């Protein structure tokens, strides 16, 4: 399968975590990796490891790509990147790191072929992947949570002893570059506007997600209209659905506070809703998805229950930070798009919403219109704060809004501690609107990279700002 790479040059496009994971497997099969990246520091790091490197300018010279048998791209590289476009037009195959990992596994380079359980969706991927891994552990099945969740798939394959099952979180970017993947089971949790600037539109984004539905079993979230519609286009040999409601035959759902499987047996109780972490509809939906994936490979209901009971939500995912004067502070920095923010806000009756960042082409009109009855006030910051403020003015004109974007704001953001200083201002302003029974909720509805290193930095900044509050900050807008 991979013999065509032996003794040949392979271009590794992108020197991030996934790019680094490619080097040893390529060398193990006898290929010669050559690294390219847009950053000079990254190229210098690769060169220090004794690897050949090339700049984009070098590669765009006439016939410069002809030496390569394959280009393996990191998921963040857009399809219209000049190097990738030139490779495709020159007839050189372009794979993602996930595609390459699939063929490494199929070729048994690191042991027997593993079963892949693939998880994708706009929101809930990481929680569902961790739930799936927790259920597999409870059942005594050797598994690794990998992919977009942090551990590259190739690193998981190279473990000794190797896992039997891979719980693989995949983004739309990764799926776009992985057309050959045929998982044992795959789930599309939901599909909402996100990364439209990368894919060019919602249809292309949904089509990328649908590549999870190509194996033995496909699973879709029936409460999400776009995901449910993908069931009709599923290429899986069998497709089942899950819903937060009474399941029909062939579905998983909820009856009288219990998760029920009517897809892989006549009727089996899997868990209590009260045992699910995180609490709320989004957490229950993720649990149903994880249950569907594991039940599809015959994991017994008792282990589904045990695994879900043992699972605890990760940091920055609707995580409780503190209570002060009857006000709860919740960090959901992982809500990096409007769809995720919607679930987060609707889980609380009275919310002071802390939001803002990079919307990446996603709209917020529908979000604001749906959640407005839950909003006490909103505090906004970041690149697209004005877009969110405008939507609030149109659909929730009675909701007070503080938009941190005037005066020396730009200079503050650019300074070393600027993002944390802005977050401190936002949290104090939000606390000033809060009263007993309210929730100050960081659910940004947007990406973090305009100000913060990543969403975890944003969440830590929020928690630090909350920790600095005292009683006099509650109920006194700044």
Shape: globular
How far apart, in Å, are the first and last alpha carbons? 64 Å
Query: What is the helix fraction of residues, given as a range?
Result: 25-40%
- Major β-sheet profile: 9 strands, mixed
- Strand content of the residues, in percent? 15-25%
Neighbour order of strands in the largest sheet: 7-8-6-9-10-11-12-13-14
The whole-number mean of residue pLDDT values reads 92
Strand tally:
20
- Report the structural category: alpha/beta
Tell me the Rg in angstroms: 23 Å
Please mark out the parts with pLDDT under 50 across 5 or more consecutive residues, or reply none.
none
Helix count? 19
Q: What topology does this entry show?
A:
Layout: E1 9-13, H1 17-28, E2 32-36, H2 40-48, E3 52-53, H3 56-59, E4 68-73, H4 82-89, E5 94-96, H5 97-106, E6 115-120, H6 125-138, E7 143-147, H7 153-157, E8 165-169, H8 172-176, E9 185-188, H9 196-199, H10 202-209, E10 217-221, H11 225-230, E11 238-242, E12 251-255, E13 258-261, E14 268-272, H12 281-295, H13 301-310, E15 319-324, E16 327-331, H14 338-346, E17 351-355, H15 365-371, E18 375-380, H16 385-395, E19 401-403, H17 409-414, H18 418-433, E20 439-442, H19 455-467
Parallel strand pairs: 1-2, 1-4, 2-3, 4-5, 6-8, 6-9, 7-8, 9-10, 10-11, 11-12, 16-20, 17-18, 17-20, 18-19
Antiparallel strand pairs: 12-13, 13-14, 15-16
Helix pairs in contact: 6-12, 6-13, 14-15, 18-19
């Amino acid at each position: 399968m991979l013999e065509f790479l032996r003794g040949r040059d392979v271009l590794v496009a992108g020197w991030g975590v996934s790019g680094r994971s490619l080097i040893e497997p390529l060398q193990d099969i006898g290929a010669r990796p050559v690294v390219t990246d847009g950053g000079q520091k990254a190229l210098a790091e690769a060169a220090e490891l004794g690897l050949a490197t090339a700049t984009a300018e070098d590669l765009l010279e006439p016939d410069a790509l002809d030496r390569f048998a394959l280009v393996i791209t990191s998921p963040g590289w857009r399809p219209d990147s000049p190097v990738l476009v030139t490779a495709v037009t020159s007839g050189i195959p372009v794979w993602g790191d996930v595609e390459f990992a699939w063929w490494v596994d199929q070729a048994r380079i690191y042991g027997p072929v593993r079963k892949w359980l693939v998880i994708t969706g706009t929101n809930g991927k990481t929680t569902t992947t961790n739930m799936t891994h927790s259920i597999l552990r409870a059942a005594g099945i050797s598994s690794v949570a990998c992919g977009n969740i942090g551990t590259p798939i190739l690193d998981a394959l190279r473990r000794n002893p190797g896992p039997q099952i891979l719980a693989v979180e995949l983004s739309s970017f990764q799926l776009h570059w992985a057309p050959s993947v045929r998982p044992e089971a795959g789930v599309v949790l939901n599909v909402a506007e996100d990364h439209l600037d990368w894919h060019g539109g919602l249809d292309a984004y949904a089509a990328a997600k649908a590549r999870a539905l190509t194996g033995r079993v496909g699973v879709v979230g029936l409460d999400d209209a776009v995901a449910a519609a993908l069931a009709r286009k599923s290429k899986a040999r069998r497709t089942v659905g899950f819903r937060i409601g009474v399941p029909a035959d062939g579905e998983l759902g909820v009856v009288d506070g219990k998760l029920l499987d009517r897809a892989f047996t006549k009727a089996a109780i899997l868990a209590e809703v009260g045992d699910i972490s995180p609490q709320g509809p989004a957490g229950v939906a993720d649990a149903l998805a994880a249950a569907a994936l594991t039940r599809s490979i015959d994991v017994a209901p008792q282990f589904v229950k045990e695994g879900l009971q043992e699972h605890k939500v990760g940091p920055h995912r609707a995580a409780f930070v503190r209570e002060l004067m009857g006000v709860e502070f919740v960090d959901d920095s992982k809500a990096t798009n409007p769809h995720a923010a919607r679930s987060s806000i609707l889980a609380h009756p009275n919310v002071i919403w802390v939001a803002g960042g990079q919307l990446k082409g996603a709209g917020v009109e529908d979000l604001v219109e749906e959640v407005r009855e839950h909003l006490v006030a909103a505090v906004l910051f970041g690149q697209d704060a004005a877009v969110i403020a405008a939507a609030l003015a149109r659909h929730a004109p009675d909701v007070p809004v503080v938009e941190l974007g005037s005066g020396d704001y730009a200079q503050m953001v650019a300074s070393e501690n600027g993002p944390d200083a802005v977050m401190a201002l936002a949290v104090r302003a939000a606390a000033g609107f809060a009263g007993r029974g309210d929730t100050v909720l960081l659910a940004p509805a947007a990406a973090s990279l305009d100000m913060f290193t990543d969403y975890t930095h944003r969440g830590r900044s929020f928690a630090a700002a909350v920790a600095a509050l005292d009683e006099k900050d509650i109920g006194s807008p700044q």
